[in-house]
Amino acid sequence: MSYNLLKGKRGIVFGALNDMSIAWKVAERAVEEGAVITLSNTPIAVRMGEVSALSEKLNAQVIAADATSVADLEQVFAQSMEILGGKIDFVLHSIGMSPNVRKKRPYDDLDYDLLNKTLDISAISFHKMIQVAKKMDAISEGGSIVALSYVAAQRTLFGYNDMADAKSMLESIARSFGYIYGREKGVRVNTISQSPTMTTAGSGVKGMDKLLDFSERMSPIGNASAEECADYCIVMFSDLTRKVTMQNLFHDGGFSSMGMSLRAMNQYEKSFDEYKDEQGNIIYG
Ligand SMILES: NC(=O)c1ccc[n+]([C@@H]2O[C@H](COP(=O)([O-])OP(=O)(O)OC[C@H]3O[C@@H](n4cnc5c(N)ncnc54)[C@H](O)[C@@H]3O)[C@@H](O)[C@H]2O)c1
User: Which residues are catalytic?
Assistant: First the structure.
């Protein structure tokens, strides 16, 4: 259902790889809500992924760019303004990748060159994106910039590895740049901290299926889907949230405020079954 929340707005969506990507859903919803957009992803993702299908469906041009390259980002903003016919009203940063996770390097044996890559791709690219946009004066007064984060920025979760550090930095960049861009141009900068979601990046997280189940049981309203995340992004791009900035906004069914739920506790207790003796007494091991 469309509410025309983005009627007349121009946007750039970074990070749609395939139809599981959160950015894919955001792009679809943005167009449904009346926006015109461009899409961007790495040259390899554009070649190997399914972005061209989305491009055709939404009549949205794809601009290949490595988000760690300032020159590439300048091209994305320049071309987007030309294609869409004016300054940009909203930007989605939906980019994340850890070469340490890919190469199975644990957190206490990180490769530091790879750590630099994780931070550059997953966090510093957000700074580069905003700095490029600001220098080019590419974003309209009161525009909205959103990046996607995860609760591992605040809490330690097994297996999330150096992506936790990247997400902390990403959220910090939103605050630091939110102050400057808000003060000078009324531009909002926020992060949305999304539930674990089964996507290409998500499936790289160690024990993702168990993490999904755990957070589903811990969240009173359940995990938020990629489609629901897209809905939240639309609200953040719309004029209904003009005074929301420098925030990390949890979109996680309540997970981040929970300590223990009955559903999780029931499941947790089941795991003791195999440690009972014949009399049913629990053996602590
Ligand atoms: N899936 C989850 O569980 C989850 C939860 C919370 C937050 N997030 C965040 O959501 C965002 C989107 O991830 P997703 O889950 O939709 O997975 P995804 O794999 O569909 O998207 C990740 C995207 O990052 C792009 N990318 C990687 N390196 C890049 C570079 N150098 N330049 C430009 N683009 C690059 C990939 O091509 C891909 O399109 C990420 O920031 C991720 O950390 C995901």
Answer: 150, 160
pLDDT digits (tens, 9 = 90+) for 196-235: 999 988 888 878 888 999 999 999 999 999 999 999 999 9
Number of the ligand 1 atom closest to the C-alpha atom of 147: 41
Question: Quick check: helix, strand or coil at residue 91?
Answer: strand
Q: Does any domain span residue 194?
A: yes
Quote the tokens at residue 259: 């300590």
Per-residue tokens: 237: 């791009």
Q: How far is the CA of 15 from the centre of ligand 1 (A)?
A: 6
Residue among 119, 114, 120, 118 nearest 69 (CA): 120
What is the pTM (predicted TM-score) of this model? Answer: 0.95
Question: Do the Cβ atoms of 144 and 187 come closer than 8 Å?
Answer: yes
| d(C-alpha 143, C-alpha 141), whole Å | 6
In a domain, 102, yes or no: yes
Q: Spell out which residues line ligand 1, taking CB within 6 angstroms.
A: 15, 17, 21-23, 41-42, 45, 66-68, 94-97, 121, 148-150, 194, 196-197, 199-202
Query: 276: CA distance to ligand 1 center in Å?
Result: 43
Q: How far is the CA of 268 from the centre of ligand 1 (A)?
A: 31
Q: Given the CA of residue 67, which atom of ligand 1 is nearest to it? A: 32
Classify residue 276: in a domain, yes or no.
no
**What confidence tens digit (pLDDT) does each residue in 225-257 have?**
999 999 999 999 999 999 999 999 999 999 999
- CATH number of 159's domain: 3.40.50.720
**The pair of three-digit structure tokens given for residue 260, joined into one six-digit string:** 């223990």
Residue 44 forms part of a structural domain: yes
Give the model confidence (pLDDT) of 165-192 as tens digits.
Answer: 999 999 999 999 999 999 999 999 999 9
> How long is the chain?
285
Range of the domain at 94: 10-260
- How many separate domains does the chain show? 1
